[in-house]
Amino acid sequence: MLNKSIWILLLLFSGNAWADATDAVVQHVWVGESIPGQNSATLELNITTVQPAKLLSVNTDVSDKVEIHSVAQQWGKMSTKVVKNLHLPAHHTTAFGTHQLFLILVGLKKELNIGDSIHVSVVIEYSNHRKQTFEVEAPVKKMALSYKHLGSEPVHDHQ
Prior knowledge:
- The structure is a single chain.
- The protein is mostly beta strands and 159 residues long.
- The chain has a single domain, classed as PCu(A)C copper chaperone (Immunoglobulin-like).
- The protein is 7% helix and 52% strand.
- It contains one helix and ten strands, in the order H-E-E-E-E-E-E-E-E-E-E.
- The protein has one helix at 2-12, and strands spanning 25-32, 40-49, 53-60, 63-74, 77-83, 86-88, 92-96, 101-108, 117-126, 131-141.
- The N and C termini lie far apart (70 Å).
């Protein structure tokens, strides 16, 4: 009887161990800090998919919207375009924040400080038209080129 109870508890607490083989994995999620008056911030994350899928949307309550930006060099100049939804290839990890793909929080509603955490929803649609929403927490981390850490005086104007 005790052995059966242990197996039942293991099944209940196994979580993603029993995930569908077509499920994606969202990991390495974090957002860059902001400075006073800053209107946007960069959200970084990785999405690994087993089958072809589309990234339909990313949402958070700390910004008006989250845009997918694709950056490419055209005719010697960097060009940025907003992508409505993004194809996610099978058996591939798509890394946002590198490789010309970025998630931008537009219309920040509050300052994002190191040590804070924000809630993020990621919606993916698989090739079989099944949609899945991932609810993740994104810690706020120091950006590599942050203006907050260049000196002791706060920076208020970046024009």
